[in-house]
Predict the 3D structure of the following.
Amino acid sequence: MVAAPQLQDAVVTRMERHGSHFFTIGLRAGSIARQAEPGQFVMIAVHPQLAADSGFLAISSSWDPLLRRPFSIYRVNSAEEEIFLLGQATGRGSRILAAAVPGQVYSVLGPLGRPFRVEPGWKHLLLVGGGAGVAPLVFAGERFAARGIAVTVLFGFRNAGSVIGWEATSAWATSRYLVTEDGSAGKKGLVTDVLRRLLASASTTTTSTSSSGCDCGHGPAPTPARFDAILACGPAVMLKATAELARAAGVPCQVSAERTMGCGFGVCLSCVLPRPDGSYALVCQDGPVFASEEVDLSG
Amino acid sequence: MRRRRSISLASPVDLSVDLGRGLILANPVMTASGTCGYGEELARFIDLRQLGAFVVKGTTLHPRVGNPPPRLVETPAGVLNSIGLQNPGIDRVIAEKIPFLARLGVPVIVNIAGDTPAEYGELAARLDKVSGVAGIELNISCPNVEKGGMLFGADPQLAAEVVATVRQVTRLPVIVKLSPNVTDIGIMARAVVQAGADAVSLVNTYTGMVIDVERRRPVLARGVGGLSGPAIRPLAVYQVWQAYRALSDTDREGGGGGERSKVPIIGMGGITSARDALEFILAGASAVAVGTATFVRPVTVLEVVSGIREYCQRHGIRSLRQLVGAAHREGLA
């Protein structure tokens, strides 16, 4: 059972910038940090909170932009009750949030949504991530590896300057594959190029476990392995292609979807994703993690 | 947190509101339809029993899948939405949604929307004897559906026809949610009251549009949407002010009334705090609803309750009724 979400005033513990537009923000978030499961997200107000004033309660320092922003939980430091969010300072809201400094207080709502689900008996997971979409996968890999599950990582980025979350995976990944669109880091290409080879080699191999991994994509050919499931997060085209390859290979695939979100807890009905039957799923409540066949990823 | 005021527990404030036909709310603060689902989502954050009333999502005769995305876009201090009345239909709402709220004991007001006056009548008739339903809100002001919706809310005769149809089939209090997208909201308010409405609620969203300049087309899939949030608050306060004036010389039978409006107004539009809510009350609202702020801060609606109580204690107000429309009586500077 997924824990009930909380509304918390969280103090910024760390703020780091990476490359041209990524940032990670650390927040002391008490029970959110204790309860969060991989794949869940928080809604964070992009403006810091003001102290209570003149008889009315604490409010955001601005109502513009009005809505909170959804962020997958990227990492958790349970001992310090800290959560880390990975942001991309591209939109107005995320650029405002990127100006946060340690010590400021931000309102955080979470943990929200359905997490990745790992079935008993699963021994090997493949994480397929693109861009800032690697965030929930880093949390997932760390958690599931700690439970003794082998985790293969396949991350793709635009270029070397936009590689994020990769270093963190070295601590727990069984095998790692890095690709960039321009080849400035790892192997040149798309994650789906490598995925196709990984799944093809897996399907022709009956008994094999991966023991040695490729750190950069320049090494030997992918180690044949059988994956119990693929967990994916990234751009819609990548998710769709990943889901199709997984289906063809007969490997269960869970995707973490992203949509414009108003509330994050199921009342504004904005973050809809079509289901095959024509009805809509809510990304915030029915997801963000879906079995890939549950939703129409091109919708 | 500094607290310079001493709050006397010995002088309780009467926050109760009479919406007519025996519907008395313990306090004037309710949720606004379409911003709080059917209660279960919000119940994870607040104790719904502390609300004056819970107003459920707009419900139609048949299930509606809603509009295609994008359905929501941010605007300066607001949001523009085009959800399109996505809901499971009245039968499932009665069977699966209302029992949860009824068990809590919070007064449930069901917002209904039809394509024709007869559909409103059928919806109201089905709700008439449902346990836990304390009132009906007629949504004649949704800008995001093809038929019905705002059409009824922009024509006083059509609006009156809808109200009269519903009035015949239910003994429940009938609240009419008015659109601000009219030249004179007072005309609409008078028309629905004369047709038998027990109360009016205003405002629904303002029609608006956001255009994606890169793609050179409207952001929302349906083009037009309804604007809500703090951006519309001064507009909404003025609409309540106008409706209060219009209703001050109208009573339910259509004859001359007193100086004060006898017909309760439920004011809403961009409320984020008790201070905002008090603006509506002073402009003439007997009750208020919190909508878009719930998206941002789900506890807002209860913060408004406690903030209003605190304000009354600070100003020595024994009964909230003293404040309703008080800004009219103070005169203008």
Q: What stands out?
A: The CA atoms of residues 20 and 161 of chain A lie 7 Å apart. The interface with chain B takes residues 4-5, 7, 45, 51-52, 55-57, 59-60, 63-68, 93, 107, 109, 259-260, 262-263, 265-270, 272-273, 278-280, 285, 299 of chain A (CB under 8 Å). Residues 6-112 of chain A form a domain with the Elongation Factor Tu (Ef-tu); domain 3 fold (CATH 2.40.30.10). Residues 204-221 of chain A have pLDDT under 50 and may be disordered.
